[in-house]
């Protein structure tokens, strides 16, 4: 910062020094020289001020942005359940806060720092006018402030519209067209023309609405501008017919022109956008606080479960959906065993896992871990006891080391972690993937980043499995695979599942799959249907019982050859 100030002030300073030198050697030019020296000093001061201002503005911008985005991130991460992301009445607000906070909230600082100097110049011009005529200065001040106020009101009206449904819809349309992961499907389905037409129509509607909003209040604005012109003309006419000297008239005209800066709109839109983000962030914080667990549990979950996880009369439906997913569900999962879960699409398999992990809370009934209500357990320690790979697991655009090591984040910084990561990779069958990476564990797993590498769906799955195994090294005792093998071929799936059974022996595991080739290996399988466990037993027992499981299995067996994949929902 100091260097910047010195650099900007150096030329005026050299100029001032030169003039000072001339004054001493040429006394005849002393008078002019003093004036020049004064100008040089003013220039130097102006440059220094500008440099300080720019540096301070940028620092403030960054700090404010980090502060506000930090608050959004903290608020979103503080939410211990998924309510604010999934409940229809809350999700839109959360989405808005998260998006708005990401849209350069520093606009507020930019706007204010743009606006303040102009306002200061406008006021200085007013003072200049007041030295010639106080009433003229007062009249013009009032008129320009009114004009500014009107212009701001117009802008605010159109701005209010800019977050309405049409803008939301248009922004979603262009996101469909621009998201790299959707580019394939958009082209294959020939959606490019449809998307650009749709965006064009939505944008036209927005522009029409904006024009409509701007037209409101135009008459009063026109009247105010007319008054400004009349007032200026009157003041000028009075000045010309009075006994003011040429200098005073020039001063007056300059001041009158400068006073228009009081209504200048530069920066107003930025202030408006920037300021509008603050209440949205506050609303997100309020939402999170309102939906926080009132009395979070404190009992440590470390090492649990040693006996069982029991769903006792659990009733659950997603708030706001009006649909009951589980109706007084009873289920016991013995610690150290593997449970396979099947059911038709929408039967509630993933929801069961969300309840088990504490991401959703039952409306009634209890989930007991070794006899202790899940609500009494410290959530953080319970989640360390559970590791899950969901269908839509995260493909972090980070190094291979992080992608696996994040399973036990506390150990990531330790020097011995690389060994553990490699061990987990070997167990998950991901060691050959790592072996082919150009920078080994340091390779970034993203084609979007420099020197990054992309993986196939199946390879990503192995990386995710390795991450879960890292979690086991970090203390996880319950492993969940929610449709873990959908992108692997039958042989690879079988290999993965066998590995999984070996690796998780002695741990509690829950496997959800639509493939019988996966599920049948579980010693115990349950069928979820209509919010209840309708069948419970080994593959052989369920087949012999001749219920839903047997029917689905036979239906597939008839449809597919013995080599084909067997999908439950076929
Ligand atoms: N966040 C949510 N808000 C409202 N309803 C939801 C939400 N998530 C899931 N549902 C609904 O709850 C029901 C159960 O969903 P869930 O994802 O648990 O089923 P699933 O058995 O895992 O299905 P699939 O086999 O298709 O993965 C479905 O009807 C689904 O539409």
UniProtKB/TrEMBL annotation:
PROSITE patterns: ABC_TRANSPORTER_1, ABC_TRANSPORTER_2. It comes from the Bacteria. The chain crosses the membrane at residues 123-147, 221-240. It holds the Pfam family ABC_tran. Residues 309-555 form the ABC transporter domain. It is a multi-pass membrane protein. The keyword Nucleotide-binding applies. InterPro entries: AAA+_ATPase, ABC1_TM_sf, ABC_transporter-like_ATP-bd, ABC_transporter-like_CS, P-loop_NTPase, Type_1_exporter. It is found in: Cell membrane. The keyword Lyase does not apply. Its main location: membrane. This is ABC transporter ATP-binding protein. It comes from Kribbella sindirgiensis.
């Amino acid at each position: 910062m100091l260097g910047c100030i010195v650099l900007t002030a150096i030329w005026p300073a050299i100029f001032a020094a030169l003039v000072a030198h001339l004054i001493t050697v040429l006394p005849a030019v002393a008078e002019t020289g003093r004036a020049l020296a004064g100008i040089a000093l003013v220039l130097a001061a102006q440059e220094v001020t500008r440099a300080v201002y720019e540096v301070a503005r940028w620092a403030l911008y960054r700090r404010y942005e980090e502060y506000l985005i930090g608050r959004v991130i903290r608020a979103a991460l503080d939410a211990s359940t998924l309510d604010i992301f999934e409940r229809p009445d809350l999700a839109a607000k959360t989405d808005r806060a998260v998006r708005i906070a990401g849209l350069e909230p520093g606009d507020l600082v930019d706007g204010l720092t743009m606006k303040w100097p102009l306002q200061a110049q406008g006021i200085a011009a007013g003072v200049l006018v007041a030295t010639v005529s106080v009433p003229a200065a007062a009249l013009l001040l009032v008129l320009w402030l009114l004009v500014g106020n009107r212009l701001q009101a117009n802008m605010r009206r159109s701005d209010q519209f800019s977050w309405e449904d049409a803008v939301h819809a248009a922004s979603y349309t262009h996101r469909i067209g621009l998201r790299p992961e959707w580019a394939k499907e958009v082209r294959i389905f020939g959606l490019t023309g449809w998307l650009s037409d749709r965006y064009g129509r939505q944008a036209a509607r927005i522009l029409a609405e904006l024009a409509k909003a701007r037209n409101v209040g135009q008459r009063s604005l026109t009247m105010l501008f007319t008054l400004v012109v009349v007032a200026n003309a009157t003041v000028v006419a009075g000045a010309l017919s009075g006994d003011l000297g040429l200098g005073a008239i020039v001063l007056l005209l300059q001041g009158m022109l400068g006073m228009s800066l009081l209504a200048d709109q530069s920066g107003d839109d930025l202030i408006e956008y920037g300021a509008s983000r603050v209440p949205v962030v506050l609303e997100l914080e309020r939402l999170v606080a309102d939906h926080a667990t009132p009395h979070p549990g404190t009992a440590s979950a470390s090492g649990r479960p040693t006996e069982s996880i029991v769903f006792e009369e659990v009733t659950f439906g997603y708030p706001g959906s009006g649909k009951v997913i589980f109706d007084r569900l009873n289920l016991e999962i013995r610690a150290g065993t593997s449970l396979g879960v099947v059911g038709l699409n929408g039967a509630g398999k993933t929801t069961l896992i969300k309840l088990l992990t504490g991401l959703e809370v039952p409306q009634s009934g209890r989930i007991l871990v070794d006899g202790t209500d899940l609500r009494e357990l410290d959530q953080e320690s319970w989640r360390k006891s559970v590791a899950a790979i969901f269908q839509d697991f995260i493909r972090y655009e980070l190094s291979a080391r992080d992608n696996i090591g994040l399973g036990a984040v506390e150990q990531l910084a330790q020097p011995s972690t690389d060994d553990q990561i490699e061990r987990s990779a070997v167990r998950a069958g991901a060691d050959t993937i790592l072996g082919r990476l150009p920078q080994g564990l340091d390779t970034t797993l993203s084609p979007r980043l420099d020197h990054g590498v992309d993986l196939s769906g199946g390879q990503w799955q192995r990386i995710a499995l390795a991450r879960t195994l890292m979690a086991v090294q970090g203390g996880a005792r319950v492993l969940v695979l929610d449709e873990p093998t959908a992108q692997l071929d039958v042989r690879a799936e079988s290999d993965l599942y066998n590995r999984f059974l070996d690796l998780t022996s002695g741990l509690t595991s829950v496997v959800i799959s639509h493939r019988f080739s996966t599920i049948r290996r579980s010693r115990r399988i349950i069928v979820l249907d209509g919010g209840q466990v309708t069948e419970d037993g080994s593959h052989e027992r369920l087949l012999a019982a001749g219920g839903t499981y047997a029917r689905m299995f036979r239906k597939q067996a008839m449809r597919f050859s013995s080599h084909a994949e067997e999908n439950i929902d076929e």
